[in-house]
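User: Structure tokens for both sequences below?

Assistant:
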Amino acid sequence: ESRRPLLACGDAEGRLEALFGRVRAIQDKSGRFDMLLCVGNFFGSPSDPEWTEYRTGAKKAPIQTFVLGANNQETVRYFPDSSGCELAENITYLGRRGVFSSTSGLQIAYLSGTESQDEPAPAYSFSSKDVTELKTSLLSTPNFKGVDILLTSPWPRDVGNFANSPGKINTKKHGSTLISDLAASLKPRYHFAALEKAYYERLPYRNHTVLQETPQHVSRFIALADVGNTSKKKYLYAFSIVPMSLMDPAELVKQPQDVTENPYRQSRKEAQKTTKALVCEEPACQFFFDLNKHQGKKRPSDGKERGNSQPKQAKTPSQPTGPCWFCLASPEVEKHLVVSIGTHCYLALAKGGLLPDHVLILPIGHCQSVVDLSPEVMEEVTKYKSALKEFFRSKGKRYVLFERNYKSQHLQLQVIPVPLDCTSEDIKESFITQAREQQIDLLEIPEHSDITQVARPGTPYFYVELDTGEKLFHSIRRSFPLQFGRAVLASPALLALPERADWRRCAAGRAEEARHIQNDFSGNVQELRNLDLYHQSLISWL
């Protein structure tokens, strides 16, 4: 049987009787385990009476035990050889950093100590050089896919992104950025850590970019509490694992239903941007927008389209199935809300807006979704987005745009500003977390990709776009909450306006809206009306 039963433990703090007593009880009930992996502080005070009995051989650990090194100066003396050694019968110190291959074929990477900015790092710490060397030793291995297990004492910084709550631990401030980088590179199937005196089993996360990379195995991060803690927090974790090297590739990359985005992807993206800029030439990027050349137009995919291609036939505009509230020629349009009119699109204040400067970008003629737009209309939409970005940035804000192509007959691009200190990661995390709570699979798609690459005409979908170009996408298969995009932005994590999550509760009469625009928002309306899309004045509906 290739599946191996293992135990992992948090900070033992020298409480070896309590730890090994618990291990014996588990083994008596469930059978023998291959090994015990200890992260965090294995030793407590410098004079540890319980340890003496194990060191001298008076007592013996009931299981093969592997431990990480010191996290403070006081306990350095327990680890005589920095490259690893046997501390007592059945108790082995792994060393400062490295990879341990078990007899069953498991590959276990480990890094002892806490993060240090100093070079060389103190005996109880690791530096960026240690992390780089550990990464290099593994990534240079032919056909490297990842490791089975990663052992560290500190948590990785940002591990709580896109995840279930880690409780009182603020993962944006606690933990090591070097360990985040290490975990992102080594792709451990299980990553154990401690030191925070807390138990946290994070939802599994992806190690590949959806729609961009082939599927890879998921990672599970588990933080364990301290042995014998009075709060009864979990400090011992039992699991079984088949070595990656023995698994069927299709079985290895299966994605569980509760899988989330990778919490460390932003740092990975920044590291990859330079590389991509160097290697991404025209043929490889044929599906990406070149925003520096012809905004909103696709690059040609090969030489045939570069000068002698036949012009494409214009799309036939779809017709509304009944009265349309958004076709500009329709008598149903509430023209007092219109801010500016271009050649193909217009800008209007949202009826019952989430905020006073919540606006809509809409095509003048009837069109159901972004996927159905002609290149000329798409180009003008792009110009509107660019102008709105500049406008909101001048106000200390950034916009979030979303479209729900579901139970709506005319394209509405909802554009809602949020404070500039709401980072892209904050916004994406809020959308992805709240989507997961409602069993909605909201995926990030490549930054400069065209939405038509992932959404087929006539297929319902929901998508979010940030003013940085980052996008999230969900293909709607059955039902979808109509107020989802607005509700996420209204939630406490972003605008904290839950009472305005439903536009119907915020709608006012025409006279009141007109009065509000004139009295409370006239300055912003005038600025929006002066948006310079074509480096010349726009015709405005006054």
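Moving on to the next sequence.
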Amino acid sequence: MESLAKLYYGGLVFFLHLHSSAAQSVGSVPRGFRFSPPAGAGDFSAFLVSSNRDFAAGFSRDPAAGYFALAVAGMNANSQPLDTIWMANRDDPFRATPELLFSGSLLVTIHQNVQWNSSSSTTSPSSSSSGDFLELLDSGNLRVVSRSSSSSPPSDDQAGVVWQSFDHPTDTLLQGQNFTQAMRLVSSISNQDPRSGSYSLQLQGDRILLLAGSEPYWTEAALKEHENGSGSTIYMRIQPDGYIGLYQSEQTRVHFVPFSSLNRASTNFTRRARLGPDGNLRVYYWQGGRMVEDYAALRDPCEFPDSCGSYGICSSELQNKSCKCPVGVTADGNSTIAFLPVDSRDAAKGCRSDAADANSCMETPSKNSSEDDFLMIQGVDYFAIRFVVAAFGVSTVTLEECRALCLGNCSCKAFFFRNDSSVCFHTDSIRSMLPSSNPHNLGFIRIAKRGRSHHTSRALQISILVLAVLLAIAALIFACYYRRSRRRDENKEEVNHHSDEEAFLETISGLPKRFPFSEIESAKNTRRISVVQLQGCSPREFQAELAAIAGLGSHSNLVALLGYCIHGKKRYIIYDGSTSGSRSLDEILKNPGLERAALEWSAKKEILLGIARGLAFLHANGGVHGDLVPGNVLLDLEHGGSSSPRLARYGLASLMRRPPPNPSDDVRAFGAIVAALLDGGDGAPAEDQRLREIWKCCAQQEAVLRPSMAMVAETLSSILPPKASFGIQSLN
């Protein structure tokens, strides 16, 4: 959406062209007005301009992808688009040439199908009435009004207003625009992607808040006592005198935030406040042909919630920030775990540690897991704590109570505790941390207990590193020797096709058994093993994927990986074969003799729970199934069928598909299996509605809207009745 982004951030990039047409109207248009961007138009086709020529309403266009958006843009002195003030469909661009129709409400259609309707987005009490005029005010407000005539320029009074863009801001607030507690400013994802991002501005009670998700990182509160004692501010507004005011009424201003240009009226340009993709709220005005920053809420680089990425610790001096990764102490106090940079070339991209991702919630979704522990980081603070305390207040607890509350909630990834004030703060999405001179300020990162964790002390880590270097040297020596011996033994079948790839695989620790080709030929017909031959993958791809699959570990809902085989240029992966009483879910669903009662409610849910847990385990350990279909779900009918479904052929799609699959592909495939279990049959139990809700969430078109498999597994676990009986019939 490159060109669309250029319009959206026109204050920084001036590359758009305004389509000049005699069809442009000034001020207002009557009911019955139609407009469609003409062929060959530029990146912005205006159909209505304000009387002062400061604003235009029209369609922005991305010529590469063919996307359109209905927008209001600020204009410069040359009547060219400067920046986007408002966008109707920022998260759902029109994917074909749209037509605008004003028929009492504002409609956008494609091939006569309504894509957007102003009536569906209004909360105005008069929204059911039809408008007579569509107006673009000199303030930049696009609105539908119901009145007998429209003045020129249109009047700014609120009489007869049916709908207005000022009630539905995107990321920008204009001078004179009222911003209420029912509204939100939402940042974009990036300067190249105008969709809704992670940061928002809201009014809550008597204060302005900037939020990262649900966590505040900046606030301004009213200082004056409320005159009417209601305890809540009605709205805020940017004033031409150079400040943001908080108001209970036109006569009752309870607070103001001054700009650099305080008391210097902007006569040539309307001020605008924009919540940027970095999370900062900035105010601009126009001067000398350029945009001038008048105010910024965040001045210190470490005030940004993602200044150093996840787990990073941000320090600043003279407006220069530095990022470092934390070192934590295990619960027994005997060893430390150091986080490592995600990108060694850019410390601001955050830190990582396998220990922080190895908690039991990923394997056993439990509301009260005793399988986890915490890594303590001393002398740190979290960006949100002081704002939470200021805005909402917190109850004080002991350190053990704070720890227990986090353990009891699988979404809690960390907690922070201040020993001197007993303040406890939990978070489910760890962003940047701050250093604290107070050693009593502690951070606790959730990890697996040391009995379950594969992580070791620093001394052991160094030993492993030394051993790895020695093994690498030995591997090189062995590879040289092996290549020479291969030339001598070309008559032997197993040596005839050996390569550098085979020598490399032999030196990788932790790989499963390597099967001779003669053994898999004799065993694959006995159903003791399942053999998959890989096609079209390079030696390095095979090496990488085999190491990745072997490193996943075992899980009760995954078919065990037994080993691999290389025979000449052919490569095979060997899984555990089915038992005599095992059948695939595909066989059960397609068996015409299977009664509907054979897949009763409890059985369906248990099958889905097992699949979800297997996928959640794969995703938590960096794996992806990539080929989740009913034929790759095995059920042991000799033991009740649904109690332990196992996933087969996982991890292979990365070698066979381009582009390789990702976890969200697995979520969507899981939704298809839910739909298959729900398909057909009359008189399905009412509980099936819960599964239908899960299916709809997993089948979302946009990958970012689909839940994680850990969330799905936890949801299924919470609705599974205790000691459920299952009714899957044998197919023998």
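User: Anything stand out in the second?

Assistant: The longest helix spans residues 458-488.
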